[in-house]
DNA sequence: GTCTATAATCAGATAGAC
DNA sequence: GTCTATCTGATTATAGAC
């Protein structure tokens, strides 16, 4: 039932304009707060054109979120396996995530909207969970499994702690304005996180 | 400008009915998805009565979120100081949080709505951050500071990791239906979390 | 104070011209 | 295919009766 926008096929110009405009409005105003009139204006097309490409508001929203979730994250973790020395790898992943994400309004908005609409659109939250959270956790878990010398008690749980720490930090600092109230150094967070996970071996 | 509902004063019956009804609807449908008609029906009063107590929809919403945030969390951490042996304390806090919260629809909805509306209502997100996140972190940070023998590198960062792990676990398992897709044992999470933080000393 | 009834506006979705 | 114009119902907020 989800009108997914023909993944990596002939890219329709009008359809892309619509999705681009829809993203602006949905990410700013949320699902219920978005009017199709505004999407039409933002996309630079008429409202009827939107309805000819997407069945209704729900269809447009689902197609948008699906497309962004999949296109942004399927390649992020997919085929590549994590390699390298533990300290360097964990630092690099954590720092790259925090650096990229803190100024990435699209990522932050997607995360906010998926959580916001998780009750009305459960499939959307499940897709995000499957595509992003579960995949990241499994990948890092596998890395831990391959290195028993690290003394990791439970690889999946530890991977969940690792990514959960990063995501919750971004949510509290960026989405909830902790940065303005009482900034917490992301460098200190990464230091402590890597320290906790690796202090058996590398320190 | 926030119409806070007279904290611990003469409790107005109609006002409480309105807030109770408003909570049902706002927590289910979000801010924009909520109609004042539905609030009136759910609260069992007329719409005009709502407008006589609260200036408008925004005022009602802000008053509601403020009241719940403050009344639920001000005493949770406030005066009491954390005490006891490290392993027992960390286990107890983590298990109590996960056990209580996983079935606590009011808590889950508040968290979801505060994140969802963080852009439209920044003051609300800041209040939540200040009242819940920052306070919890400081309290646990102080506990760590008082026990240098634990070998904690950075007490505040480690406290952030501790609570961030718990909150992100609940968000991913409950709000994003990870529980249905691939459940992750909360016991294993707590074991690994406590193990990571304390393996210098207690193991 | 509280209700019923209503005003004014805006929403999602469609019809029909070109 | 795409646009303009429009229909129908819902929404916020208010007026006025009791």
From TrEMBL, chains A, B:
- Pfam families (UniProt xref): TetR_C_7, TetR_N
Q: Which PROSITE patterns would you find in this protein's record? A: HTH_TETR_2
Q: Note the InterPro entries from the entry.
A: Homeodomain-like_sf, HTH-type_TetR-like_transc_reg, HTH_TetR, Tet_transcr_reg_TetR-rel_C_sf, TetR_C_Proteobacteria
- Does the UniProt entry include the keyword NAD? no
Q: Which residues form the HTH tetR-type domain?
A: 12-72
UniProt keyword terms in alphabetical order:
DNA-binding, Transcription, Transcription regulation
Q: Which GO terms describe its molecular function?
A: DNA-binding transcription factor activity; transcription cis-regulatory region binding
Coiled coil spans: none
Positions of the DNA-binding region: 35-54
Cite a single GO BP annotation: negative regulation of DNA-templated transcription
Protein's UniProt name: TetR/AcrR family transcriptional regulator
Give the organism the record lists.
Pseudanabaena catenata USMAC16
């Amino acid at each position: 039932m989800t009108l997914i926008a023909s993944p990596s096929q002939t890219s329709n110009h009008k359809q892309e304009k619509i999705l681009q405009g829809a993203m602006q409005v949905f990410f700013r105003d949320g699902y219920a707060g978005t009017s199709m009139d505004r999407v039409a204006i933002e996309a630079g097309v008429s409202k009827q054109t939107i309805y000819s490409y997407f069945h209704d508001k729900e269809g447009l929203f689902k197609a948008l979120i699906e497309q962004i979730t999949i296109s942004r994250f399927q390649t992020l973790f997919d085929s590549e396996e994590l390699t390298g020395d533990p300290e360097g790898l964990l630092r690099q992943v954590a720092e790259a995530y925090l650096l990229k994400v803190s100024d990435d309004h699209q990522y932050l908005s997607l995360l906010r909207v998926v959580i916001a609409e998780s009750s009305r659109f459960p499939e959307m939250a499940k897709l995000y969970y499957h595509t992003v959270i579960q995949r990241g956790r499994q990948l890092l878990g596998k890395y831990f499994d391959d290195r028993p010398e690290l003394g990791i008690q439970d690889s999946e749980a530890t991977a969940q702690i690792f990514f959960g720490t990063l995501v919750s930090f971004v949510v509290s600092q960026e989405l909830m304005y902790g940065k303005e109230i009482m900034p917490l150094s992301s460098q200190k967070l990464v230091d402590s996180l890597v320290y906790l996970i690796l202090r058996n071996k590398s320190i």
